[in-house]
Amino acid sequence: MSIPSHNRRNKIAESVIDYTDMRTKIKRIAVLTSGGDAPGMNACVRAVVRDGLAAGLDVYGVRRGYAGLINNEFVEMDSRSVGGIIRHGGTILMTARAPEFCDEAGRKTALENLSAWGIDGVVVIGGDGSLHGAIELDAAGVKVIGVPASIDNDIGGTDMSIGVDTALNTILDAMDKIKDTATAHQRSFLIEVMGRRHGYLALNAGVAGGAEMIILPNQPIDLSAIEKEVNAAFRRGKPHFIVVVAEGAEIDGRTATHALAEVIGQTEYGVRVTVLGHVQRGGSPTAYDRILGTRFGAAAVDMLLDGKTGLMTAMRGGEIIGIPISEAVSSPPHLHPDILRLAEPLSM
Ligand code: F6P
Fold first, then answer.
1. Which residue in 10, 87, 121, 157 has its CB near the most CB atoms, within 10 A?
2. pLDDT tops 50 at residue 12
3. 275-278, long-range: CB within 8 Å, 24+ apart, which pairs?
């Protein structure tokens, strides 16, 4: 079956927008990935490049995110340049955390480079810091569309960011393996997961992986009750006691992982600690992240073609919409109350 390649643009053409006129306004776009990489970024880059080319645009990639904007690392992309990348983690454009873009001098150089290359619009793929950078570009008069990509799922206004699903599955794979050895030894395990100050990964991995306890950032913890709780669980017949700890959780000014290891280590069952770390950021993206990255990338191109700027692609109830980037970064998402409520009864 052949699928018409430009349904979407036909739809735009049928509405009141004079698409030909738009094309004369936007001729050349750039795409960059910035901040912590997230599996699915490549799918998004691929969609921006191929969908942009299909719309008649010149597409440039900027290497190393905002640092590349400043250091003039532009490279023209063609269809082949993104061949075979959809299944790979990381980002072919490479990424960086670029504090120099926070300085006015750095931003000025970046703007000069964008203008020298004749770039009419930029797609910024990244997390919270990257989206703040996009706000700066927009304020300086550059047309920019942000795409949320961060395993932390800490960006507001969207149900999901690129990379979250793959990271969750990586965590689950590790948890399942740890459970095998924990059960064999009747041990407790602390598994620390990423997420910065947000508990999305910890909560969802904890529930999906059948953890006995989940420790989230900003959650009050009564350390004195924990030793008893662990001993009681083993006496009830639990063959293991798995605690998923969010990296951003603290207890009495220490990381929760440290504080809990000390207390659970006092039990007769002992404790082992696994900090999953950057393993969570790598690997081949899941189908979900490939599709999400692809849809976000194509939507970002559409928004630029429509003359939009200052928007972030967002997923809401299965649909892709554009919301102001400023709104997305100023209202971090809440953890879903249903999942929060289920965490305790399901751990019994
Ligand atoms: O934001 C993604 C993330 O992986 C966080 O979960 C983590 O705290 C941070 O990046 C680690 O950053 P870096 O790779 O710079 O050490």
1. 121
2. no
3. 275/192, 276/170, 276/171, 276/174, 276/191, 276/192, 276/193, 276/194, 277/194
- Domains delineated in the chain: 7-162+285-330 (3.40.50.450), 164-281 (3.40.50.460)
Using the mean position of ligand 1's atoms as its centre, give its distance from the Cα of residue 286 in Å.
20
Surface-to-core class of residue 288, CB atoms within 10 Å of its CB (0-12 exposed, 13-18 middle, 19+ buried): middle
- From start to end of 73-142, where are the E strands? 74-76, 121-126
Atom of ligand 1 nearest to the CA of 201: 6
Judged by DSSP in three states, 168 sits in: helix
Centre of ligand 1 from the C-alpha of residue 228, in Å: 34
State phi, psi for 147 to the nearest 5 degrees: -125, 120
Angle at which helices 223-235 and 256-264 cross, to 10°: 50
Residue ID of nearest Cα to ligand 1 atom 3: 36
Question: pLDDT at position 332, please?
Answer: 87
**pLDDT score of 184 more than 90:** yes
Mean pLDDT of 261-270: 95
Active site (annotated) includes residue 152: yes
Around ligand 1, the residues with Cβ closer than 6 Å are 36, 97, 127, 150-152, 194-196, 247, 281
CA separation for the pair 98, 32 (Å, rounded): 13
For ligand 1, the distance from its centroid to the CA atom of residue 163, given in whole angstroms, is 12
Q: Which atom of ligand 1 is nearest to the CA of 281?
A: 4
Ligand 1 atom nearest 128 alpha carbon: 1
Average pLDDT over residues 245-268: 96
- Higher local confidence (pLDDT), 281 or 17: 281
Q: How far does residue 130's CA lie from ligand 1's centre (Å)? A: 13
Residue with the smallest CA separation from ligand 1 atom 11 is 36
Alpha-carbon distances, residue 286 vs 39, 48, 170, 263, 293 (angstroms): 8, 19, 10, 37, 11
Band of the pLDDT at 344, cuts 50, 70, 90? Answer: confident
Which residue has a Cα nearest atom 12 of ligand 1? 36
Q: What tokens does 238 get?
A: 């639990």
> Which position among 51, 128, 138, 152 bears the catalytic label?
152
Neighbours of 164 (CB within 10 A): 29
- Residue 7: the pLDDT is 47
